[in-house]
User: Which sequence fits this backbone?
């Protein structure tokens, strides 16, 4: 099975916390697919435990799929809004005058 066949998109890149919340949208078959894939590939203990617990909860009737979409917007993905700083030479503060007792970069050197 390849990662393209998994019920959660970009499964291999999801953090453990996201897997835990996204797996709630899946039924028994989807969780079993992820568990088999995880055991064959990364075999992360925390993820295997999450998937095993979810599978038990689904099998015993303690839980049901949430009905949400595993394809939904991922909170761990960038929103597409460009970040960065508005700082530029035009927005810099006024020049700093050195104090009378010395130069700020070398206080032992007196000002001339």
Assistant:
């Amino acid at each position: 099975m390849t990662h393209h066949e998994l019920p959660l998109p970009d499964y291999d890149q999801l953090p453990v916390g996201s897997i835990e919340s996204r797996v709630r949208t899946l039924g028994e078959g989807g969780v079993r697919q992820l568990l088999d894939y995880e055991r064959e590939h990364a075999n992360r203990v925390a993820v295997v435990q999450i998937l095993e617990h979810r599978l038990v909860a689904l099998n015993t009737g303690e839980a049901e799929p949430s009905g949400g979409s595993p394809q939904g917007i991922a909170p761990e993905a960038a929103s597409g809004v460009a970040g960065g700083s508005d700082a530029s030479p035009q927005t810099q503060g006024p020049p700093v005058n050195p104090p009378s007792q010395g130069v700020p970069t070398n206080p032992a050197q007196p000002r001339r």
Remarks:
- The chain has a mean pLDDT of 81.
- The chain is about 30% helix and 0% strand.
